[in-house]
Design brief:
Elements lengths: L5 E6 L2 E6 L10 H16 L5 E6 L4 E3 L4 H6 L4 H21 L4 E5 L2 E3 L1 H8 L2 E5 L3 E3 L13 H9 L1 H10 L5 H7 L4 E3 L4 H13 L3 H14 L4 H17 L1 H11 L10
Parallel strand pairs: 2-3, 3-5, 4-6, 5-7, 6-8, 7-9
Antiparallel strand pairs: 1-2
């Protein structure tokens, strides 16, 4: 499929997804939301994709959230427009969260609104030194979406999440790192290189085990102890029966580097 608001490319088992509306700060409109959902479906269905990178085009923005100018053009039917955008956006986030392949956020500029939610939904995040992070919803009288209340509450804790949503505080990359929103901060001109190296490292790993880690950490916040331990038992048993699990055990015993295939 050819996209008009995204770039999508798979190289060396890594899917690169780039928002491509730089003149609008890569803000989400209905077309971008639909295309992001399609890209997420492709990633989650393609067994050849073993890691993915989500980033923005241009130097100013990762994703500035919903396109407020488009909102302003549809004030009389804004509830319908927002429901359409969030239906696709939320389906995309669900696919990214449930897929085996780890999703790396490469934040190249402003991450605001739903853009902040997408950052929080990524499995690992690399930030450029010039990036900024803010909620911005209540600044214009809107409520959060894009999974931000789910993931930010888990990542930051309720006090810090509440502060972001109520005050619209803008976090610098250093603050985002200190708060646990991002994993590392790099020079802007090294962002693609660093994110690509991390993605390739993950793509060479045991993709099934990576998927199990994602599922287990997602369930851990709501499952009871015994339920979570049973999920762990099922996951490690399935991993042990997999091609990669058995290769990993053999490699350990033979004192060599394992060669994982994603099986």
């Amino acid at each position: 499929m050819t996209y008009t608001t995204l770039d999508y490319d798979v190289r060396d088992a890594v899917a690169w997804i780039s928002f491509n509306r730089p003149d609008r700060f890569n803000a989400l409109d209905p077309v971008m939301a639909r295309e992001l959902c399609d890209a997420a479906n492709r990633c989650s269905s393609d067994r050849g994709v073993r890691a993915a990178v989500l980033t923005g085009s241009g130097e100013q923005a990762f994703c500035a959230g919903g396109d407020v100018a488009v909102f302003g053009e549809h004030l009389d039917s804004l509830d319908l427009l927002v429901k359409e955008i969030t239906a696709y956006l939320h389906a995309a986030i669900s696919r990214f969260t449930r897929m085996r392949a780890p999703l790396i956020g490469a934040v190249n500029g402003v991450a605001a609104g739903a853009g902040l939610g997408l950052v929080a939904a990524c499995d690992l995040v690399v930030s450029a030194e010039n990036a900024t992070f803010t909620s911005a919803y209540t600044r214009i009288g809107l409520a959060p979406d894009g999974s931000s209340t789910y993931f930010l509450n888990r990542l930051l804790g309720p006090r810090r999440a509440m502060e972001l949503f109520l005050t619209n505080r803008v976090l610098s990359p250093a603050e985002a790192l200190d708060w646990g929103l991002v994993n590392r901060v790099v020079a802007a001109d090294k962002l693609a290189e660093e994110a690509g190296a991390l993605a390739r490292q993950l793509a060479e790993g045991p993709t099934g085990a990576h998927g199990s880690v994602k599922r287990l950490l997602e369930s851990a916040a709501s499952a009871g102890l015994e339920t979570q331990m049973e999920l762990e038992s099922l996951a490690i048993a399935a991993a042990g029966a997999s091609t990669d699990g058995q290769e990993g055990i053999r490699a350990f015993l033979e004192k060599r580097t394992p060669s994982f295939t994603g099986g």
